[in-house]
């Protein structure tokens, strides 16, 4: 519910912002310049990238000895993408993939871990691409925003201001725990809780170590996953750069490779539905501050990305409605 509220407030703010001055007129003019062929090409490249991402995950699953059909991995990835972009609940696409792939194998923990490794590989490669293009092309250019120093000071000041609240919250939690421990029934419940987490935690750590050894024993799979990620991300961003040029946005491609990858990392923070508002505001701010792109044009390219994401979610919706993601349907692949 909080995510949906965040998105609604963001949309309301965008509408108010566009209605001021000549922004709506400028925004509409930028969109009308878009070449439909460029947009279709960008959408096609993004959908192809989804198949490549599914291949990355499929390779990671095989490293753990989990052999599901490739088409099943594709179905689950499209399903997860649909959940990420349209479902307002806290159930994200990664959790959906974990839930359904675990139903297809007895190695449930390893299957779930593969999703987390897949996400980690994706985020790390995204950050590496952003850093590479920033240091190679953009370092020292544009307006430098003093983010780090301000953020650190604000954080320390905030902790200092709220230290009494933190202290009394911890004291209250300790007092409640002490009261529970004073009764025999409370101690029994606490022992069960501790035993449960100890047993399951030890099992999870053991399985994690075993899975890590398998990944380290087959580093080629991780390298392949990293290479596929870099390739697909550059391919997708190039598509958006082509769309931007067709709309008259003459920013260097290096800005796209740097800013889009940064935005994708920011959009992964679960504060909205599919990173909505977060991604759009970030693109507008980054392109305006560093590439000199008008905010209306930045919003046009940001919304183009959003439309592509939503259209690419349609196969996931079809899979969800038809039940093609269910384990009993995997055997038909």
Task: Reconstruct the topology from this structure.
Blueprint (H helix, E strand, L loop, with lengths): L1 H18 L3 H10 L3 H28 L6 H17 L6 H10 L5 H31 L8 H15 L1 H20 L1 H34 L1 H28 L6 H15 L10 H13 L4 H18 L1 H9 L11
Helix pairs in contact: 2-13, 3-4, 3-6, 3-10, 3-13, 4-5, 4-14, 5-6, 6-10, 6-11, 8-9, 10-11, 11-12, 12-13
Short summary of the structure?
Helices cover 80% and strands 0% of the residues. It is mostly helical and 333 residues long.
Order of helices and strands: HHHHHHHHHHHHHH
Rg from alpha-carbon coordinates: 23 Å
Compute the number of strand runs.
Answer: 0
- How many helical stretches? 14
First and last CA, distance:
36 Å
Largest sheet, described in full? Answer: none
Strand pairing plus helix content: what structural class?
Answer: mainly alpha
Mean pLDDT: 80
**Low-confidence runs of at least 5 consecutive residues:** 143-156
Q: What global shape is seen?
A: globular
Strand content: under 5%
Give the proportion of residues in helices: over 70%
């Amino acid at each position: 519910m909080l995510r949906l509220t965040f998105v609604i407030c963001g949309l309301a703010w965008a509408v108010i912002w566009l209605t001021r001055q000549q922004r709506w007129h400028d925004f509409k003019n930028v969109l009308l310049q878009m070449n439909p062929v460029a947009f279709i090409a960008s959408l096609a490249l993004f959908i192809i990238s989804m198949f490549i991402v599914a291949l990355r995950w499929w390779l990671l699953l095989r490293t753990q000895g989990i052999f599901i059909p490739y088409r099943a991995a594709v179905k689950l990835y499209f399903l997860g993408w649909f959940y990420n972009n349209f479902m307002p609940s806290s159930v994200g696409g990664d959790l959906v993939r974990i839930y359904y792939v675990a139903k297809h194998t007895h190695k449930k923990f390893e299957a779930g871990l593969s999703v987390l490794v897949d996400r980690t590989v994706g985020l790390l490669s995204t950050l590496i691409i952003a850093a590479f293009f920033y240091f190679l092309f953009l370092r020292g250019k544009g307006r430098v925003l003093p983010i780090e120093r301000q953020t650190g000071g604000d954080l320390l000041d905030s902790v200092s201001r709220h230290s009494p609240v933190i202290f009394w919250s911890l004291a209250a939690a300790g007092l409640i725990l002490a009261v529970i421990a004073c009764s025999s029934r409370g101690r029994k419940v606490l022992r069960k809780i501790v035993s449960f987490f100890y047993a399951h935690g030890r099992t999870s750590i053991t399985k994690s170590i075993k899975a890590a050894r398998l990944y380290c024993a087959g580093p080629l799979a991780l390298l392949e996953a990293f290479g596929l990620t870099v390739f697909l991300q550059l391919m997708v961003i190039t598509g958006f750069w082509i769309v931007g040029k067709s709309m008259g946005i003459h920013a260097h491609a290096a800005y796209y490779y740097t800013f889009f990858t940064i935005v994708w990392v920011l959009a992964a923070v679960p504060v909205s539905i599919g990173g909505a508002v977060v991604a759009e505001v970030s693109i507008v701010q980054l392109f305006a501050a560093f590439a000199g792109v008008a905010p209306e044009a930045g919003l046009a390219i940001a919304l183009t990305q959003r439309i592509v994401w939503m259209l690419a979610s349609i196969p996931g919706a079809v899979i969800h409605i038809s039940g093609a993601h269910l384990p009993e349907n995997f055997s038909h692949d």
